[in-house]
Structure formats: C-alpha cells, structure tokens
Amino acid sequence: MKQSLGSSSAYYRNNAVMGQWGVRLLDYCHYSVTALLHHSMQKVIVAPSILAADFSRLADEVHRVEQAGADWIHCDIMDGHFVDNISFGPEIVGIVRKQTNLPLDVHLMIRTPDHYAPRFVKAGANSITVHVEPEANHDVEKTLRAIRDAGCRPGLSLNPATPFESVEPFLDKIDILLVMTVHPGFGGQSFRREMMEKVKRASEWKKSHGHKVDIEVDGGINAQTARLSIQNGANVLVAGTSIFHTKDYAKAIRDLRGPI
Prior knowledge:
The chain is of the alpha/beta class. The protein folds into two domains: about 1-35; about 40-255, TIM Barrel, CATH 3.20.20.70. Helix content is about 45%, strand content about 15%. It has helices spanning about 1-15, 20-40, 60-70, 90-100, 115-125, 140-150, 195-210, 225-230, 240-245, 250-255, and strands at about 45-50, 75-80, 105-110, 125-130, 155-160, 175-180, 215-220, 235-240. An eight-stranded parallel β-sheet has the order 1-8-7-6-5-4-3-2.
C-alpha cells in the first residue's frame, strides 16, 4: 500500500498532472490510510474495572465479563490518601485470581506503592501500575524495577493535572502507560477530551522509539470515547460503568472494541 501510494505521488509530481494542492491531498490520504491501517491492525484490549461490579456476587461478575469477551480484569486500588476514596486490597485481588485466568491489571492509586506492591504480586497480579505524582511518595524508577523483577509488567500512570513530561523519563522502563481521562477516585465521571493530547504524545513516542508499550486510558470510557482514544493511539480501554451497568456485557465490550 505504501509503495503504491508513494509511486503515484512521484508520478504526479514528475508529470505535473496535479498541482501543489493535489500532491498535498494525496500525501494526506496516504497518511490517513496508513494511520487507519495501523489502528485496525492494533489489538484493542478491553479491561473491565471490577470497581463498578456488584460485589455481592463478584465471582459471577468476573465469570460474566470473561465469557463476554474481556481481555483483562482491571483492579482499582485506592487507599483514601492518594485519592479521596477507599476501594479494596490484595485479598480481593486474590479472590478474583481464583475465579479467572485472565490477566489481572492492578492500578495502585495509593501512597508508598513500593511497600504494598509485593502483596499484590503475591495475590496474583500480572501487571501493576503506580503513579508518577510526588504525592505517591516513592522512588518511581526503583518501584518499576522491583515490579518487573517480581515477574509483573510495570506500568506508570499520570493524573489529568500532571504534565506528560513527568512520565517521559520512565517510558523506556514500563510496559503500560495509563493516561487517566478523569481525576481518579470515583467512577461515573465525564471523559476529559483534552487528555487525548497525552495519548497522542505517548503514541508518537512509542512509534519513534520502537518500544512496545501498551497505552491505556481509564475514566469515562464508552463506545464514543473509546473510538476517540483508539484514534489517538490508545490500545487498552478500562471501562467500569459502561460494562457493568448494562444488561448485555458482551455487546458493551463489542461496542467498546469497535469494528474488527
């Protein structure tokens, strides 16, 4: 495809069949088609957040989303200090681990995650994401290295108010970059479109460095915002309300993933 479009562009330039605007239009179409093919070939991972599940029947909820086509199970851990809410700890993660073989994607919205991460490793986490903000109170690079050394995929997250530059020094040390598209702590918030600039910058960094990092978005993700996120370079969608608060989990997941 690329060679075909490239040769056509050269032909028009050399033969003066198209003017300057025509060549620019052809180049634009080449860019658009290439971007579309990139996104269509990139596997979109859907990670239902159990924070929105019915905890009175948690095992059944995990089984239902797995059968509905979930790729990962996302576990939001909040301590009431780093964010103004409390969720659950490693014991619940361990219970979920017994219910599924899907990867458990653990997001630590807590202070001193370096202290608590080993407990989530033991509970069965496959990936552990920590925060870059100073309020998390840890040595980011050391924590990421410890997570990897423990056999988990290390991830790093940034809040809406945190500039992208804060995570740049660590991008080559992580497997997952989690861009928060709402302020963390509570579900059901509205998606913040301006966070797509961070997703786009992460995608550009990924392409220019050839580093295989998953770009994850979390907060206000539904069928519409999922499309926008994917278009900007995200390949992992965390969704709670838009899955667990519907009757048909399979349809909700298909709608998030979009056309294949």
